[in-house]
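Section 5.1 Outputs to date
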Amino acid sequence: MAKVYFASARVKKWRYEDSMPGKLERLLREAGVSKQFEKDEWVAVKTHFGSEGAHRIVRPVFLRKVVNELKSAGSKPFVTDTVRIKGLDYLEVANQNGINHLSVGAPVVIADGLYGHDNVMVKAGELLGEIAVASLIHDVPAMVVCSHVKGHINAGYAGAIKNLAMGAVSAGHRHCGWKCGRGAMHTMGEGKFVWDSEKCALCYQCAEVCPLDCIDFEKDTFNYKNERCWRCGRCTRVCPEGALSLPGDDQLFMKSLAESTQAVLGTFQQNKVLYVNFLMEIQPECDCMPAAEVPVIQDIGIVVSSDIVAVEQASIDMLLKAKPLPGSLAADEKIKEGADILLELHKKPYILQVQEAERLGLGSPEYELIEIE
């Protein structure tokens, strides 16, 4: 049975040791960072840099605590993510969100190069076939996965699995494009867009939010470049009138997340990856959106484990016990206490990604919860 270490976000004693940064230090020590990572070993601290306007990422103070603990073990950490926009622009977004060498105490680098083409094709199961894993993630011997737990338009729930499945692979490949990258998961089972011209208010928010600039409204008609679009779904999410929809197969998508995660983790030796889930500022959307919503669930705490399935299951179990926050999207949708808040918000069977990860042998949902007081 996997050990899952937990520290509550509640502060009951007004001293540093009981602050969240202080508790994280204790969590990392209890989880055995000094034993898991070696002297002079390069360790990737994988996180999400966020977007311009999306600020509810894993805060730099927590990344620095992870870096410091790795350094105390003699390891050589760096903080990294894959590009979602052009690399230099993405590094500037990271800097705006407070992630830089000075704040986190380690180099901040792009895992798949400034153009997102530095990757290695890795076998990825029967659905994906193969996937373009970022070359830096592929080559580094060890990793700490720092994930901001939140909702997600496609995944429903986004934690460590989504962080690796989409965040440790490139957007595309130098030769086979987005179909070999994270776009392969987005398009898994997805069909073509359905546009209702009578509902459309021609606000153009869908075109503005598209990361690939593949939407236009020539002659006031919705058009998109079918071969260029990887079906990320942002356009459907931001449409205020519900004029745009994208039929898809949620089961295939969830399974493809697990397959991609398996491909990423297959590049590491056993017990060389640690997972840190931050159940804080739990907003309904991904950190790649151009804005941050108010949290739908109160801060819960931090969960740490060497088992990706266990850390995800423990995180979900805690979310299921949470109450919807007033003044949030959960309140707007009239979600009642005791409901599965993220499932109600996104209507996505997100538990399938965890179940599939277990089936693929990535871990066990059975865990022993060890709370750090």
